[in-house]
Design brief:
alpha+beta, globular
């Protein structure tokens, strides 16, 4: 078994070397090894795969097939996946272990996934979900960095493991996101979103890793009543298994010291350890409680505490009117990072901690991630609860629900409550202003930078304050201003959609602008009856649209906004409406356009229509991988819908694909 594991480790080395060489040659236009050396290593990898019967995900010997699905089906687990009882006390853990040989392993902080293999092939992957029902993510599991796609064992194998994203990969991904507030908060959240993607090409880009921690079933394999033997067998099949140590109550301290030292530089997120009895029969005979299995126990790290001084309380208004207290304190080092602020959540906690400016407080990171106040050592209680909203100056009130006091702004016109409207205004299909995420907008609104749509084009007034904000800096500020300036030049459909008029989506905005000959003055004065006569616009949409422009304050806000914009007048296409009456569905990646929305815009400008799913009304499915076995391709073939590539689409509308 050890020789086989050595061969699999060599396969991992070879695959990594070949991937690096391929990336350098094809993407970076440089060679890091000769063709002869590449072929030699490739042949060695291929021979080892045949010898071991294992092919790892990402192996250069296989072609990666990406596929997008329309939804993630749900599936009930054969048996509930229970949580673990836990402790932060070493003596409680020692008592659990007693004299039993126990495997002490990392408690990885990612997303639990159940894999099923039949006939040596990966056939199903399901998330833990709520423990009873999970989501089927088989396509995504196939592109995990280190999951075997085929294994030598031919029977039914079911195992559990943790999908994780390393801290180093997490940092690299966040570096590619210019807007600090749009960056991912921690590796676990990024991993959860990556594993549950509808498009597995995105999953592949995130470098998700999988570490096996439990074997559920392997028919006709003898493990001699040992969990450790199961782990070794899984490793021999090609799986990366979670690192563990064999311990008893007497040897526990040394193992905990080992893990405690290693976690300081461990690249994989972990929030503790798991103890599992090695004796399978003994552990299973213990049964379980209503909530926990009795054969395993979790050990959580004690939180690192630091003493500091409360400098101020920032009251941050949100879109719901809730005003949240955020403690600002002298910076301290916690779990390897510098922190200077922590959410206090509500007025009840402010009062229970008796907080006051200048108080000595202790802070920690919950689960080594989220800064929290542990205790107030001074308890001066001199902090005043604001009587006025920090955004609009309106009166505040304290609401008491089930004994929990929270602070609210009573002004219905408070700008903070308009956050959703501002978020829509800056979105990709509207003004497309990069760097103004919902979180950033909330901060800018709370500080009084933004009161109207037009204010977004004058953020340069607040340069000195913005560059000093947490997560910002000169570079982020310059990128934001450049994006704002670029957004000044826009189109009428983008503007109409960005106003956030009820029931007016991207497609409706285009239809209305086209029907009104792109005349904004006409659009602003249109009656409900005239609007209802536009094809595709019913009386409900017509009513809300006309009602919006009937309000004087909306007209004034638009006049103010128009002073900041340059609206492009569309040129009448010489191609006419050659796609009128034709219905298209677009799937997969595109090569001649920036994205699928650009293809959609061309189709609609030529009179065609784009829908999200293939039906009997569909005329064309545009898919550059026309031979793929995706659900949309299969449905198109069943219904006799023409499947065309992007190049064929360009030829259909009479455009030169190379232009």
């Amino acid at each position: 078994m050890e020789k086989k594991q050595q061969k699999i480790e060599r396969m991992k080395e070879l695959a990594a070397m070949l991937r690096r060489a391929g990336k350098a040659y094809y993407q970076e236009d440089r060679e890091i090894m000769s063709n002869y050396e590449y072929d030699r290593l490739y042949d060695e990898l291929q021979a080892l795969e045949q010898e071991t019967g294992t092919v790892l995900a990402g192996s250069p010997t296989i072609a990666v097939g990406y596929e997008a699905v329309e939804e993630l089906p749900k599936e009930r687990h054969e048996s509930p996946m229970l949580s673990l009882d836990k402790t932060k006390d070493v003596e409680v853990l020692r008592s659990f272990i007693g004299s039993q040989v126990t495997l002490l392993s990392w408690k990885l902080d990612g997303l639990t996934v159940v894999l099923t293999y039949l006939g040596g092939a990966l056939v199903k992957a399901v998330t833990r979900g709520n423990g009873e029902v999970g989501e089927v993510i088989t396509n995504n599991a196939r592109v995990f960095q280190n999951v075997p796609l085929t294994i030598p064992y031919q029977g039914e194998l079911i195992l559990r493991g943790e999908a994780v994203i390393s801290y180093s990969d997490f940092a690299k991904i966040n570096e590619t996101i210019a807007d600090a507030d749009a960056r991912y908060k921690n590796p676990r959240n990024l991993c959860s979103g990556s594993v549950r993607q509808l498009d597995n090409e995105i999953t592949a880009q995130r470098n998700v890793q999988f570490f096996a921690f439990a074997l559920v079933r392997a028919q006709n394999v003898e493990f001699e009543n040992s969990r450790e033997n199961q782990m070794k067998w899984l490793a021999a099949q090609g799986f990366d298994v979670v690192e563990y140590k064999r311990v008893t109550g007497e040897t526990l301290d040394g193992a905990i010291r080992y893990f405690a030292e290693k976690i300081q530089t461990f690249d994989i997120p972990s929030d503790g350890l798991v103890a599992l009895y090695d004796d399978i029969a003994y552990g299973e005979a213990l049964g379980r409680t209503a909530k926990f299995p009795r054969n395993s126990f979790a050990f959580k790290w004690k939180d690192e505490l630091r003493e500091t001084r409360l400098l101020e309380m920032e009251w941050s208004a949100s879109r719901t009117g809730l005003i949240n207290p955020v403690a600002i304190f002298e910076p301290v080092e916690l779990e390897g990072t510098t922190v200077s602020r922590a959410s206090v959540h509500n007025v009840s906690i402010v009062k229970s901690l008796q907080l006051g400016i200048g108080d000595r407080i202790t802070v920690y990171k919950a689960n080594m991630i989220i800064p929290q106040i542990e205790e107030n050592l001074t308890r001066s209680g001199n902090l005043e609860i604001p009587a006025h909203c920090p955004v609009c100056g309106g009166d505040t009130r304290i609401s008491d629900a089930n004994g929990v006091e929270t602070l609210y702004c009573t002004n219905s016109d408070c700008q903070a409550k308009k956050i959703k409207a501002f978020t829509l205004f800056v979105s990709r299909d509207a003004m497309n202003i990069d760097g103004l995420s919902e979180a950033t907008l909330e901060k800018f609104i709370a500080r009084g930078f933004i009161h109207s749509f037009a204010d977004m084009f004058h953020l340069d007034r607040w340069r000195e304050e913005i560059v000093q904000m947490e997560g910002f800096g000169e570079k982020s500020y310059q990128n934001l201003i450049a994006s704002v300036e670029k957004a000044r030049k826009t189109t009428l459909p983008r503007l109409i959609y960005g106003l956030g008029i009820s029931n007016i989506g991207v497609a409706n905005a285009r239809v209305i602008c086209k029907a009104c000959d792109y005349d904004l003055d006409r659009i602003r004065k249109i009656s409900t009856e005239e609007m209802a006569e536009i094809d595709g616009i019913g009386p409900v949409i017509a009513g809300t649209f006309a009602e919006y422009f009937a309000r004087e304050k909306n007209q004034q806000a638009l006049d103010k906004l128009l002073k900041e914009l340059e609206i492009e007048v569309p040129q009448v296409s010489s191609e006419g409406l050659k796609l009128e009456g034709k219905v298209f569905v677009i799937t997969g990646g595109v090569e001649h356009f920036a994205n699928r929305n650009e293809v959609k815009a061309v189709i609609e400008s030529l009179g065609g229509k784009v829908t999200g799913s293939v039906s009997a009304k569909t005329d064309y499915l545009i898919n550059n991988d026309a031979a793929s076995n995706s659900s949309k391709n299969r449905k198109a073939k069943e219904m006799g819908v023409s499947i065309i590539t992007e190049q064929e689409f360009l030829e259909l509308i009479g455009r030169n694909p190379t232009a």
